[in-house]
Amino acid sequence: MKPGHCRTIGTVTRSRHTEHIMRWRITIIIPVAAVVAGCSFDSNALNSNALGSFFVAPGKFNYYRCPDLVRQISTLSERERELTALMERANQDTSGMVVNAVVYSPQLATTHEELQLAREAAAQKKCSHQPLPPMENPNG
Questions:
Q1: In the structure, what pLDDT confidence band is assigned to residue 133 with cuts at 50, 70 and 90?
Q2: What digits encode the pLDDT tens for the residues 10-47?
Q3: Quick one: pLDDT band at residue 138, thresholds 50, 70, 90?
Q4: What is the DSSP string of 9-26?
Q5: Torsion over CA: 67, 68, 73, 79 (sign)
Q6: Are 50 and 91 members of one domain?
């Protein structure tokens, strides 16, 4: 072999040809793995609570008072409707599934999980889901 043709890495000597083949394999394997993972992607799985439960603390709403819980439930319900509308609109575009998977689905799953926990806390405290009290004017 010519001097400089082989390179010693620790105790292993590799030729440039071997390194080139290894880089080529990695360059092919990673995109192929991403495509296979994308093809096996189940968008309905993101609508479940599995993803949202990773980002929401279980006792998050335990110390909220009933008026605060009712207000939070209203806010989260509106956010859930907004995210669902955004996902439906994104599906009309060719890249909509990617946008939904990366941006909207995690947000929707988290919002859905928070909404469920807020409703459970309201039920445990026997809060009535009456209309929200009027917002107080901070200016007096």
A1: very low
A2: 555 556 777 767 776 777 777 666 666 655 555 554 44
A3: very low
A4: ETTEEEEHHHHHHHHHHH
A5: positive
A6: yes
CA distances from 139 to 71, 132, 133, 135 (A): 21, 20, 17, 12
Same domain for 102 and 82: yes
Q: Give yes or no: residues 72 and 50 share one domain.
A: yes
In the block, which residue shows the tokens 């968008």?
A: 43
State how far the Cα of 72 lies from the Cα of 70, in Å rounded to an integer.
Answer: 5
The number of residues in the chain equals 140
In the structure, what pLDDT confidence band is assigned to residue 71 with cuts at 50, 70 and 90?
A: very high
* H/E element, 7: strand 6-9
Q: Is the pTM of this model over 0.85?
A: no
Based on the fold, state whether residues 81 and 23 are members of the same structural domain: no
**Residue 137 DSSP class:** P
The span from the CA of 46 to the CA of 40, in Å, is: 13
Total domains present in the chain: 2
**3-class DSSP state of 36:** helix
Q: Yes or no: say if 54 and 117 are a contact pair by the CB < 8 Å rule.
A: no
Residue 140 belongs to a domain: no
Q: List the domain range (segments joined by +) for residue 8.
A: 1-40
